[in-house]
Amino acid sequence: MSFREYDRKTFIADTARAFAARRIGRRAFFRRMAMAGVGFSGFASTFLGGARPFGGLTNLGTPMAMAQTPDDVTAWLKDVGQQFAGSTVRYTSEATPPTVVASELKSEFEEATGITVEIEIVPLEQVLAKATLDAQGQLGTYDLYYLDQAWSALFQPDVYNPREYYEEKPELAMPGYDWDDFSPELVKAITTANGSVMGVPFDIPIFILMYRKDLYDKHGLAVPETLEQFMEVTKALHEAESGNGIFGTTGQLRSGHYSLNCDWTAWLWANGGSIFDANRMFAGNDAAGMKGLEFMLELVDYMPPDAKTWTWDGEWQSVAQGLAGHVISWGEFFPGLDGGDSKVAGLMEAAIPPKETALRAPGDCGFNEIPHIGHQGGSSIALSRYSKNPDAAWLFMQWVTSKDVVARSSTVGGGASPVRLSSFKDPRVLEAAKPGAGTTRHFPAIEWTINNRMGSEPSDLPSWAEIANNVIPVELGKLLVGQTGSPEEAMAAIQSQTDELAAPFRG
Amino acid sequence: MSTAVRGRTPLLPRWLTADHPLPWLAPMFAMILAFGIYPLAYSIWLSLHQRNRFTRVDEFSGLANWVQAFGDQRFIDSLLVTVQYTLTCLVFQVVLGIAIALLLDCERRGYGLLRALMTLPLVVPPAVTGLMFLLMQDGQFGVLSYYLKLVGLVSPEAPILANPRTALWGVMAADIWQWTPFMVLILLAGLRALPKEPYEAAAIDGAGFLQCLWHLTLPMLSRVIAVAVLIRTIDLFRIYDYVYAMTAGGPGTATETLSFYAGRVFGVANFNYAATLSLIMLVVLNVVCFTFLKLARVRF
Known about the structure:
The structure holds 2 protein chains of 2 kinds. By secondary structure, chain A is an alpha/beta fold. Chain A folds into 3 domains: 1-29, no CATH class; 63-205 and 378-431, D-Maltodextrin-Binding Protein, domain 2 (3-Layer(aba) Sandwich); 207-375 and 440-505, 3-Layer(aba) Sandwich (D-Maltodextrin-Binding Protein, domain 2), CATH 3.40.190.10. In chain A, 43% of the residues lie in helices and 10% in strands. In chain A, the strands form 4 sheets. In chain A, strands 2-1-3-11-6 form a 5-stranded mixed beta sheet, sandwiched between helices. Chain A has a 3-stranded antiparallel beta sheet with strand order 8-7-9. In chain A, strands 4-5 form a two-stranded antiparallel sheet. In chain A, a hairpin with a 2-residue loop joins β4 and β5. The longest helix of chain A has 19 residues, at 26-44. Mean pLDDT of chain A is 86; it is low at 1-13 and 33-51. Chain B is mainly α. Chain B is built from 15 helices and 2 strands. Chain B has helices at 2-8, 14-17, 22-47, 64-70, 73-104, 111-117, 120-123, 126-136, 143-150, 167-193, 197-204, 209-237, 241-246, 258-267, 271-296, and strands at residues 49-52, 57-60. Chain B has a two-stranded antiparallel ribbon. In chain B, a hairpin with a 4-residue loop joins β1 (49-52) and β2 (57-60). In chain B, α5 (73-104) packs across α10, α10 (167-193) packs across α12 (209-237) and α14 (258-267) runs antiparallel to α15 (271-296). Chain B is globular, with a radius of gyration of 25 Å. The two termini of chain B are 31 Å apart. The model of chain B is unreliable at 1-6 (pLDDT under 50). Classes of the chains: A alpha/beta, B mainly alpha.
């Protein structure tokens, strides 16, 4: 008997009813409850907001993914790394797919160099807190930082420029590292703040369209190419399927969480708005901005009511449980949706996000903001200036972002999207482009979106981390649940706080 | 006596065998200094400064952070949520605690097992309890939501934790479930220690259960109740785990407690303001506790 065989909604209720009606004995009752507890515990672990949603490293161990580090790289690691044998490199990160993969593959690096790598995986908000404490106190507890693009500017004084480090230490430079293999768009959007390169691209979650092909076919719907069509298809799906417990779309709208900021910015940008104007003043409440907010509020009507309590993990679960017809969200959802425990395995397709209704030019925005519907939530790996073992950490940083490891990260089923151009063409990546757990068949949509519709938050603003985490999602959360009277009132509250926090950097 | 001790232990250093209490107090004093006084002093220092998070320079700002707090509507709201949370949970836990303790204060067979089972919720980590209640109240999968919907108490369009009117109750349910047994155990110990004579005299005078409860049990138990209330008040006032696990302060700011707000401010590296909020919390909590101790005439 397995918990999965039962509907999660009614398992405990049915068991309790059966026990009350004396249909099952006390022993069976306790056994079933224990099973439910275990099942719920596992299910619960994805609801804390602490972990990124993906289907696990399903292809780990397969020849495709687990080919060892190439001989020439291993020889180089042995040659250069031995001088640092016995040292320890510490790195803290969110449970992003490449971090989890790095954690699994790091033994190859450790064996070759004798350097110990400790990877501490904690929820996103704790990564920020830990990295901030380390940097502000110049403690050197961590040798490498995981820097979300939203915080990059905050850490500008605390990290080495990796390009300069590479040039200055040729004896430590990995042969064939190939900086040009990183997409220039990604380097600019993820790793650059105020013109300074701060790290190496490590992760590129980006918004794409993921839809239920079976439902599209059933109702004769075409893949939406414009924002208006997306709304029409959402409504059509909702009207046709809500009776079956399927909502038009879903969301990540938990109040006070960065995920809500991500959803809002996508709709803001897709409707021609921007967070800041060219004068670096808040512009989310201009005509285009209000249109974007209204678009989001209209979409909320076609989402599960619980979407207001979900971050990205809840959103992913809702799609995996078959509660939504389609969604524009993180592409890294897709491999997990295509296999494992997903109820929609094999039913989903990935596509490029629909064309924006209007688009504001980056030059009309502030702080290096780049409006586009394909909101990117990329991150970089950066070398701390306070590191006690910067050279050893630098070796690991190069290895973990090397062509081979990036390509393998993309194929082990963790949902990691390639940050290197070559990875999209890697034979192992192409081989995995078929339905099933750990698929890479959504990569063409990812690659196209990176190159054509990638939206980026204002990466030059050091206080953006506070605005994106503690201002926008709080005020929008209040609006969504009726604590704020009107959209205008919510935007006014965001404007006053944002302009105050941005003031020191307006120049 | 001290001469005799010295005589028996000639190898011990003189300071260790002296009558003076200082050597024996020193370790504890060092611990209090390191883990109590220094952090407190540092927090006060932080609250009187403003750190530029980008130039890494600290500047004296006087009472600016304190003034900011009292003009901060979010701080006021979070304080109100905290007070509401503390008082409501306290009332439920005290009333339920007394009722269950009275029910379990019995020597009949099986009651010992029931008393032992009461401790089970206490050994579950609060974050796990929060997750359990998060799932039970989930609008799609939750068993609690399922039944509340069946009886019409919850609307499918407004899940418990997504509705600002019910979210705080949803969080409080976890707290009440987990900590009522703590009240029960303390009160049960108090009940067991009460003298039997007053009850025998009352029985001879024809007093009923309620009269005994009102005129004997509760007055005699008042000191125990006061201590339990004091401990729970301190715990409830700094509630964080359930809020973090279940709502992250939402929906909106409906469940944002003071400690959660301070934690969030700390998380975005505004250490000065976070320290100020923590100190305000400390002051409020101390005032409440001392007032309560005075009113309840509790002495330790």
